[in-house]
Design goal:
The structure is a homodimer of 241-residue chains. Chain A is of the alpha/beta class. Chain A is built from 11 helices and 7 strands. In chain A, helix 7 packs across helix 8 and helix 7 packs across helix 10. Chains A and B meet through helix 3, helix 7, helix 8, helix 9 and helix 10 of A and helix 3, helix 7, helix 8, helix 9 and helix 10 of B. Chains A, B: This is Prephenate dehydrogenase.
Chain lengths: 241, 241
């Protein structure tokens, strides 16, 4: 994110781990980055409350604080509870990661959940103009309810497929290639992303139960095909003889 | 297939159902099409033996017979058993369908299983030059073993997702979009294709058992995360605070 923002604005970044900063991004202390006009948190949900408390004293009146976590209900609550009333808040979720950006950012989606203040429209305009992003507005609840299914199911499918090592790579259908590509995109997700999707989304258990119930139904149908399925096959075969 | 072949060769087609023929394709009787230099069967596996018996008397010495079914072990055995020794045989599986061809055929894969005769190389050269297809050679067993996993898993995932009606369409990650696209490609598969993948592939039960076992492992891990998973999350969160 810092790398893509750097050509547009001056970017300071603080990372407690020793990481190399992208070109045009200035390393800085937590106090320094917290004193900026716009502050973007990119931390695991589990670390968010602690980081917010550390940052709070340095935040300038009128600053805009955003996050980029994979779930929104819990981070939105933490931002509202821990950060001073004199800063504006927008919770966000870019619905893509470094793997997808390789093919260009135009048309990729980002969700904005305006929490406090009136600057979400301006942020949306910037994201559209600078990067060609498709900006979606939603409440944190709306986001988590939908993401529990879309992001959640991808995550479950990817986990199962990654457990199946040595899947064939030669005789592959076009549709399998697409699924494989989806799995590769989430293969290197940080542990925190994975756990956020599974645990921190209040709707994830419901989505998971629904998916596993349908999987079980498919398994049973494969073992003992239903009468209508068998009949449809016979009818189709008859048409050819 | 007939539509794409018509610009290259004269194409006669026989379909027992009343269907409209593509431009440049001549409707004909079973006897007429069976008397051609190259005969391509596109029928459900369940109808294949009966159709082969009907065609056999009309096949010319030196003709080339091919099929295009989604599995290869059983169709290959039927072609060998039912068709006269004086015809050449190549079992094939185009690893794509009408849904994928919309975006162009170049780079799409087709498997050729040479069964009898020496014309597979020439067929491969034609498919590469005329359509830009990636031609893979395999035995029927090699094909079915790999397809049981690649085609088979796509099929199971698609079946489960198609059962989940009203999946969200707005807040979708890039990786979910790819899976959704894969599901749409197989949504309209004929009943026979679906049943061939599930039942007529001798390796499909093994692939299915393996996939469902990993799905169950994922389910259990979601309900009660393992100690290493919890530890990894805590370590990651600590690095930020």
């Amino acid at each position: 994110m810092a790398e893509y923002l750097a050509p547009h604005v001056a970017v300071l970044a603080h990372d407690p781990r020793a990481v190399e900063m992208p070109v045009g991004v200035e390393p800085a202390s937590l106090a320094q980055v917290s004193g900026c006009d716009i502050v973007i948190l990119a931390v695991p949900v589990a670390a968010m409350r602690a980081v917010c408390r550390e940052m709070a004293p340095y935040l300038k009146p009128g600053a805009l604080v955003m996050d980029v976590g994979s779930v929104k209900v819990e981070p939105a609550a933490i931002l509202r509870e821990e950060l001073p009333a004199h800063v504006d808040l927008i919770a966000t979720h870019p619905l893509f990661g470094p793997q997808s950006v390789g093919q260009g950012m135009a048309g990729l989606k980002i969700v904005l959940c305006p929490l406090r203040g009136t600057r979400a429209r301006r942020v949306a305009t910037f994201l559209r103009r600078a990067f060609g992003l498709a900006v979606l507005f939603a409440t944190p609840e709306e986001h988590d309810r939908e993401a529990a299914f879309t992001q959640g199911l991808t995550h479950l499918i990817a986990k199962a497929m990654l457990r199946m090592e040595h899947l064939p790579e030669r005789i592959t259908t076009r549709s399998f290639d697409l699924i494989r590509q989806a799995v590769e995109m989430v293969r290197h997700d940080a542990v925190g992303v994975s756990r956020a999707i599974e645990q921190a989304n209040p709707f994830s258990a419901e989505a998971r139960d629904c998916f596993f119930a349908e999987m079980e139904a498919v398994r049973l149908e494969c073992e003992a095909p239903s009468l209508p399925a068998v009949r449809a096959e016979l009818v189709e075969a008859w048409q050819f003889s």
